[in-house]
Amino acid sequence: MPIEIRMPALSPTMTEGNLARWLKKEGDEVHSGDVIAEIETDKATMEYEAADEGRLGRIIVPEGAQGIKVNQPIALLLEEGEDPSALAGFAAALPAPHPLPLPASGEREGPAPHGSAQSAARGQAPARKDEEQKPKLSGNGAGRVFASPLARRMALHAGLDLGAIRGSGPQGRIVKADIDAALGGASTAATATAPAITGVTGAPPTAPVFAKPQILALAGTPPFTEKPHTAMRRVIARRLAESKQTVPHHYMSVDCTIDDLLKIRATLNGKSETKTSINDFVIRAAALALRQVPAANASWSDDAILLWQRADISVAVALDDGLITPIVKGADQKGLAQIAAEMKDLALRARAGKLKLEEFQGGTFSISNLGMYGIRDFAAVINPPQGCILAVGAGEQRPIVQGGQLAIATVMTCTLSCDHRVIDGAVGAQFLAAFKKLIEDPLTMLL
Predict the structure, then answer these.
(1) Which of 15, 57, 178, 317 is least enclosed by beta carbons within 10 angstroms?
(2) How many CB atoms lie within 10 A of CB 25?
(3) How far is CA 169 from the centre of its chain?
């Protein structure tokens, strides 16, 4: 019987996607790990790798199609030696797809909205060929294991043997629910080194929903034009509403004098091909401050506060219709030049929609910098399950008092938004004190 290739869940927020391009045509041989299509998600255009082997028998959804629901069949794969006659009437008889359950908003794979994280609350992308778990022979399928890409990735990270799991999906395929069941049975036998973030139990409260006629009536029906919601804008709206409704924010600000930083930056940029920005110094200072105050590098879960042992810094990058947060991983272990080079590459690929899933979903701490727009100070919304986000304003000349005398200095205001369940005022203040000291004495960041 032909194997159904279904629209994958390539991000935790993805409920539908667009089929940008087929990279295989009908009749082509397909091997496990081959990139067979490009899928547009709410965040980026991503490659879809095959989980099974065979020959592409029929393309059900043509390239360019939009709004394809997750888990909807998009093609049929003939197994080795299977006759094309098996396709006859198969597509018409396909059962109505049942969407695979997406991971909870706090679930993480790798580092997330922070957990890996963006919480990384995440649906998983298919494993890359070099990291795909080699299936072991079992009774599940003729000599090989059939599993969804998400199930394969989950099993790989959990160290589970797919051959020992009985699949409950179509044709005995192993799906996420089967991995969840296996993990549930094994939870008492092993302790994960990086626990999954479970998030808040129960459905979060929802904001009032207003239909367009209600909005028009409330506004007094002035002239208007419409800009349809993109998938990214809908996700941003939902995530930020959930954050403000479920996370108790508190804020604190500090003024940093950055004249010495500007001088050192000018000197470095005059001697190196890699140009550093003020934001690169901010990333480095935040990462080192997290190392000094590890209690600020934390996330809330229902079971425990998770203290991250590495500073993975998510940096907000503006896009045409939203934003994305590529991650500088292990920023506390990287120098300014490396951070600058990585950030430039990540920002360019983010705006081109070419980031890999693991490059923007995850992170332990976020930075949002609006200084380049002349914004003096602002408070950013926390990106759950991260515990903090640092909002960076413009460096501007202001009068200050030095040694009892008025003077002019370049001052940059930074505001820390904290999840009060995780980071109390004293911890937030300790972090900002460490950050300020690093920013105002930038030579210490070069050691």
Answers:
(1) 15
(2) 8
(3) 27
Which one is catalytic: 114, 157, 249, 420?
420
Q: What is the 3-state secondary structure (H, E, C) of 325-356?
A: CCEECCHHHCCHHHHHHHHHHHHHHHHCCCCC
Residue with tokens 């005398």, as numbered in its chain: 405
Q: Find residue 230's DSSP bridge partners.
A: none
Which amino acid, residue 292? Q
Inter-axis angle of helices 425-440 and 278-292, to 10 degrees? 130
Unique residue bearing structure tokens 């079971």: 303
Please state the φ and ψ torsions of residue 48, each to the nearest 5 degrees: -110, 115
Q: Which of 7, 146, 154 is nearest to 79 (CA)?
A: 146
Report the length, in residues, of the chain. Answer: 447
Task: State the Cα–Cα distance between residues 176 and 184, nearest whole angstrom.
Answer: 12
Residues sharing a CB contact under 8 Å with residue 83, sequence separation 6 or more, in sequence order: none
Q: Please give the structure tokens belonging to residue 118.
A: 């963006």
**Amino acid in position 357:** L
CA distances, 245 to each of 121, 300, 380 (Å): 17, 15, 14
Q: In one letter, which amino acid is 7?
A: M
Q: How many CB atoms lie within 10 A of CB 278?
A: 19
Q: Return the bridge partners of 417, or none.
A: 251, 389
Letter for the amino acid at 132? E
Rounded CA separation 153/158 (Å): 9
Check: CATH 2.40.50.100 for 3-186? yes
Looking at domain 248-445, which CATH architecture does it have?
Answer: 2-Layer Sandwich (3.30)
| CB neighbour list of residue 406: distance below 8 Å, 6 or more residues apart | 399, 400
Is 420 annotated in the active site? Answer: yes
Every domain of the chain and the residues it spans: 3-186, 248-445
Tens place of pLDDT per residue across the chain (447 aa): 788 899 888 776 678 888 888 999 998 999 888 889 988 876 677 888 888 888 898 999 998 888 888 889 999 988 887 878 778 766 544 444 433 333 333 333 333 333 333 333 333 333 333 333 333 333 353 446 777 767 776 776 666 777 788 887 766 778 777 887 777 654 333 333 333 333 333 444 444 566 788 888 888 878 888 888 777 788 888 888 889 999 999 999 999 999 999 999 999 999 988 899 999 999 999 999 999 999 999 999 989 999 999 999 999 999 887 889 999 999 999 999 999 999 999 999 988 888 888 898 889 999 999 999 999 999 999 999 999 999 999 999 999 998 899 999 999 999 999 999 999 999 999 999 999 999 999 999 987
Q: How many CB atoms lie within 10 A of CB 191?
A: 7
